[in-house]
Amino acid sequence: xxxxxxxxxxxxxxxQLLGWFARRQRPLLWRRxxxxxxxxxxxxxxxxxxxxxxxxHYQRFLKKFPTIERLAAAxxxxxxxxWSGLGYYRRARMLHAAAKIVVRTLKGxxxxxxxxxxxxxxxxxxxxxxxxxxxxxxxxxxxxxxxERVLQRYVGKASDMDEVWRIASSLLNKKRPGDFNxxxxxxxxxxxxxxxxRCLLCPVADLCRSRGELPVSRAAAxxxxxxxxxxxxxxxGAVFLVQxxxxxxxxxxxxxxPDFTPNPAxxxxxxxxxxxxxxxxxxxxxxxxxxxxxxxxxWIPISRVPALPLTGLARKILRRVAVIGSATPAx
Length: 331
Ligand code: SF4
Fold this sequence. Notes:
The protein has helices at 7-24, 36-46, 51-64, 68-73, 76-83, 90-105, 114-117, 125-136, 145-155, 161-171, 177-190, 312-320, and strands spanning 224-235, 238-243, 255-256, 271-277, 280-289, 298-301. By secondary structure, the chain is an alpha+beta fold. 36% of the residues are buried.
């Protein structure tokens, strides 16, 4: 029968894991201080986005919105522009909405407990626990995908999420909850990898019940392949763009190039590239147009384009065709 680790095993796990984390943690920007705004921002950016991609955007976003007050006072369009390239724009809208609540309703007082944090838009159980433990030392465990995998292997049992949360809570170092939670997540990201756990390098291998023998498999999401065509029309220092509807389920209100249906007279694409969004791989072809064949868009002066909330794909295309620079301030 499955048994939780003994108190001696839990004590050794905490000690070994924290020692390893002190020596081996990556020097990530958001680990430099315990400012709740910065930790919250990093946690929201890291949802569904790789650390490397977040690193590119985190500093630029903070440069534009260095405080929660500045974020709350910003127009939504400039928040979306600063988020451009990270995808999942609903996160940016929720972040903005939550900033307004903290500044206007809570008088700038950031909620300090996981329970209160979960009342803000876009903050679920995991994010609330991460902010509360890292910024405010609240003794609450976190479970993200990495922690779930590590703990299942560690206890040698494929458990459901409720049980994983219980295991995480029982192992938590209540004196240093923020460090412990980050250490567990770091172990999952750097050592206890999904396909091939690096057990020989693992600081808790002597306590682990499976040593990587427990298959933790999640059905790999099947990638869907799609081909899309866009038209690029330029004239007198302006480019023709269309804005997505406010009620679109994806990237509402963002700007992009108009769709285009090529025919035998269209000639060759001036640009072809690949772009992935969640489970869809797009083959993208861009055709130069003398003028728009779509009346619903607008001519936008090229000097204003970098500050627009562009979709990630539109930004990629406009960069490749040198309509905007490779390091625009809005990214
Ligand atoms: S020993 Fe291997 S399977 Fe166990 S926690 Fe460490 S890396 Fe993961």
